[in-house]
């Protein structure tokens, strides 16, 4: 990825990739192939910044590369994607709040999360007809896997025979909901297969942030 997108565009792209089936369908419909992506370091992003701005300016004309909150509203645009990316962006704001804690930058914490993610994939492979839910520590690892679309497709095909769906629309936490039933089943299967707790300290749902709640009003 020699040309990097503006930060706001990159965030929307990131969110689109978190629905891998829709992302693949939309890419093939609009571009004829799945557009790959990889995470870059801050230094790599900085090195590509100037050339990316030039490429953007030559293609997008007066639309500025860097987002300006004071810019006039863009003309009404009708997306050609089959996925409601705008709604997905709102949902991911809450996910980011859940994982925006200091320990999510710990190498040891993330290393353990990767191990737990692999265990989760094994459960998904064994119980492919069941709705299983991740814990936040390895859900962020799952997200990271998905934002490398071609690698994710390759790995899922090897493990499951096809892309593994990721659905962030299941958020109802009322008694008897699909989400809570899935959590209970995952917790039970996890203890049976791995003989360790499914839940991990610092990885529990901590309600919706006030800012996210206000933005959804």
Q: What features would you describe in this structure?
A:
InterPro entries: GRDP-like (IPR009836). This is Glyco_hydro_38N domain-containing protein. By secondary structure, the chain is mainly α. The protein folds into two domains: 7-85, no CATH class; 87-211, no CATH class. 57% of the residues lie in helices and 0% in strands. It is built from nine helices and no strands. It has helices at residues 7-17, 20-31, 42-60, 85-99, 107-126, 136-146, 149-160, 178-194, 210-215. Helix 1 (7-17) packs across helix 4 and helix 5 (107-126) crosses helix 6.
Mean pLDDT: 91
As residue ranges, the low-confidence spans are 212-217
Largest sheet: none
Shape: globular
Portion in beta strands: under 5%
Class per helix and strand makeup: mainly alpha
**Separation of the first and last Cα atoms:** 37 Å
Q: What number of structural domains do the residues give?
A: 2
C-alpha Rg, in Å?
Answer: 19 Å
Provide the succession of SSEs: HHHHHHHHH
Helical stretch tally: 9
Helix content: 55-70%
Number of strands: 0
Which secondary structure elements does this structure contain, and how are they paired or packed?
Blueprint: H1 7-17, H2 20-31, H3 42-60, H4 85-99, H5 107-126, H6 136-146, H7 149-160, H8 178-194, H9 210-215
Helix pairs in contact: 1-4, 5-6
């Amino acid at each position: 990825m020699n040309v990097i997108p503006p930060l706001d565009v990159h965030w929307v792209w990131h969110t689109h990739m978190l629905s891998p089936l829709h992302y693949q369908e939309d890419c093939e419909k609009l571009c004829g192939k799945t557009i790959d992506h990889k995470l870059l370091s801050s230094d790599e992003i900085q090195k590509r910044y100037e050339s990316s701005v030039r490429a953007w300016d030559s293609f997008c004309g007066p639309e500025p590369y860097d987002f300006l909150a004071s810019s006039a509203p863009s003309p009404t645009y009708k997306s050609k994607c089959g996925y409601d990316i705008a709604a997905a962006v709102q949902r991911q704001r809450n996910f980011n709040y859940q994982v925006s804690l200091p320990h999510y930058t710990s190498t040891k914490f993330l290393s353990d999360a990767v191990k737990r993610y692999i265990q989760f994939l094994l459960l998904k492979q064994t119980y492919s007809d069941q709705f299983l839910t991740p814990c936040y520590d390895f859900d962020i690892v799952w997200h990271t896997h998905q934002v490398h679309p071609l690698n994710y497709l390759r790995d899922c095909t090897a493990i499951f025979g096809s892309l593994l769906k990721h659905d962030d629309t299941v958020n109802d936490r009322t008694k008897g909901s699909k989400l809570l039933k899935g959590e209970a089943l995952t917790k039970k299967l996890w203890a049976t297969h791995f003989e360790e707790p499914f839940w991990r300290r610092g990885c529990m749902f901590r309600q919706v942030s006030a800012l996210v709640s206000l933005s959804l009003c």
